[in-house]
Each structure stands twice: as C-alpha cells, then as structure tokens.
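Sequence in, structure out.
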Amino acid sequence: MDQIKFLLPEIILVLLSFALLFNSIIDNKDKRITNKILLIIGTISSIILLANNNSEGYFLNNTFENNLVTNKIKILLICGTLLSLLLVSNSKTKEFKEFFNEYCFLLIISLVGGMIIVSSREFLTLIIAFELLSIPLYLITAMGPTSSKSIEAATKLFFFGTLSTVFLIFSSVLFYSMSGSTYFSEIIWSSNDPIIILSTSFLLITVSFKCAFYPFHFWVSDTYESAPMNLLPFLSTIPKVAILGFLFFFFKDLYLTIPNSNILNVISILIITSIGFGSILGVMQSKLLRLLAYSGIPHAGIMLICVITPLGISSDFLILYFAFYIFSNVGLFICLNSLPKVNEEFTINDLKGLYKDSPFVAISSASFLLSLAGAPLFAGFWGKFNIALISFKSFGLLFPILILVGAGISFYYYLKIIKVIFQDKIVNQTMIFSSNIINKALIVICLIITIVLGINPALLSKFL
C-alpha cells in the first residue's frame, strides 16, 4: 500500500471514472442522481488527500514527484473539472443527459493524464501522460452539435495533436543523446551544444500545440466552435494549466548554473508573439466563441513568463494565476450555457438584451470578463500585476510593458462584450436568456472565488 500511496488521488479518480461508466449500463431512473453523488464523493476524496500533503517526495525510481506545489495545481485541476462536469450533468441537451457517464469517463481520464503530467519527472512517463490527457479530448471534440463541423475540428485536432507527440518524442530522444538519461534532472542546461536548443525547441513546439501558443494556435477557433458547449470550461482551462504546471518544474534547474541565453531567447520569442499577436487576434473577432478562443493565447503567454522566472515566489504567483484563470473561464462558460443557443454563428451582438432578461447572469458574465481583462478588485488584476512585477525584477522592462499593452488590448474587446450585454434587445430579437438553480449555484461559487481573491489574494495560500 505504501508503494502506491503517492498515486491514491489519481487511483481514486480512475476508479470513479469506471464506476460511472459501469453505472451507465444499469437502467434505472435514479442513475443520473447516483452519478452526481459518485462524482462529488470521488473528486472531494482526491482533493482531501492532496490537501493533506499526500506522500511528498520522489517515487517510482524518481520518475514521479509530489510536493506542495504539485498538490496545489492538482487541486485546482480537480476543482475545475468538477465544476465542468456538474455543468454537463445539468445540460439542457438530451444527448448530454443520456451520455453523461461517458462524458464523465472521458473527462476524468483526461484529468488524470493532466495530473500525471504535473508530477512527471522523466520523458517516458511524460509521453504517456500527454496521450492520456489528449486522446479523450479528440473524442469529445467530435461529439459537438454539428456533426460535419465537429468531425472536421476533431480530425484537425487529432492530426496536430499526434504531430505534436512526434515532436515530443523527438525532443526526448535529443535530450537523451546529450545526457544519456530520460530524467529531467540530468539535463545540462548550461551546455553550448546546439542540440539542447533544438531539443528544447521541439519540446516547446509540442507545448505550443497543446496550449495554443502563437503561431501554433490555428486549431483552437475551430475546436471552440465545434466542440460541445458544455465541455468548453474543461477544454479551455485544464489541459493548459496542467502543461504549464509541468513546464514550471521542467525549467526549474535552468538557473542552477549560468542560464543558457539561447534557450531564454527561444522562450521569450514564444512569449512575445503569444501576448502580442494573440491580443490583436482577439480584437479582429466578431463571433463570440472565436474571440474567447483567441483571448486565451495571451493568457498562456503571461503564464509562461512566470514559468521561467527564477524568483522563489514565482510558484505562489503562478498558482494564483491558475486559480483565477480556471474559475473565471469556467464561470464565464457556465453563464454562456444559460443562453438558448450558442454556436459558431453566435456573434457578440447576439448578447444584446441579456441584462434585461437575466441581470444575475449579465452581471456575473461582466465580472468574469473584467477578471480576465485584469481589472482591479478582481483576481485577474493580481494575477497579471504579480507576474509583471516579478518579470521586471528578473528580466527588466520588456515583459511588464508587454503585459500592460496586452492587458490594454484585452480591455478593449472584453469591454466591447460587456457593453453589448447591457444594451437593449435588438429589433425582432426573440431569444430569452435564463439560468436554472444549479447553474446559478455554480456561477456563485466561481464569482465568490474571483472576487475574494481580487480583494485579498493571500487567502488562496490559506486554503491551498
């Protein structure tokens, strides 16, 4: 038992996923209620184990690490997944109600892959975890409301996802050729060998595909428009947070000796293009889902700054950014789920009249958008401010100015959405916006966390 204790949170989630799948075979009218109970008990049990500092240290011949930071990241991943699955269980769509167990099975397996990615300290483990995270996402994307469009988006996601895995394998081979080991701790970051630049670049290409960094973002808009609306809270947050959490530990030894300036330059180019061009892409969009898809690109770039910042407090600031990003995004998509029909043709102007029909959903949506923009009194402000501060101490003015410019551009398109939300209905508009009790409860949870962390971000360290 002691040999697998470190994996208990992941094991509980795997058992939960199969229990939900098995329960789908049983034909009874209380099946969905039983599934919700199982889901809540299983996820909360995993959170409790992680919160009690479940087995810190290195395991499985040093291929797996648990520590305070990995546990915090995993708790956030589980919380985001739980809120997403509760939204799926409360779906208005018949298909979601009928196949809720199957969706839970896929999402929880993907979650387990993300949790293993965060703790992986060796390339073979990492490759398996990446596939465990990705394969369920390919299947979920193909389950969208428009079959032809969804299959096209899933095929594109599958192709580029598989290609990114090839880059990851090639990267691991190159790292192995240098160090003679598949362990991250054996990488000689100070080496002047061009192979280390090439291998790091291939790894970053893989990460760029998975997290939609610019210019590897071209699949993200199609996926947002084609995937089931109820699953976007998961798709938009959990994979990105898990992979960036892995990068934080992958590059932690970069500053143990003289840092390799070439590696820092490659990462800096990825950061600059993602924040700069990603922000500009958001301005150019009129369709709501495409705008939200592109708005995640600069956020990924800002989190990548924190990943490579050598200061000891960077982990606390990264956890804060993860928390605000997960709860603001999940809350926003739950609000959008209250709309009668959001598809690829849904534009920003279609939100007119939202405040008239549902003031609660309108104010909540505006709050989440302001948090994502980085407005004061919301968690997003401290997330961006803290990373700008530590990046200034480590790298000078370039990154803080970039964050400021990106935040200014994002304010423009987020405020454009908020302005439309509070406008009167357009002529002949017949859509009625409403939200049921369960969705309102989920929105309230996300809203409280977003506002409380905006007022006092230090509270996060008391609960995690």
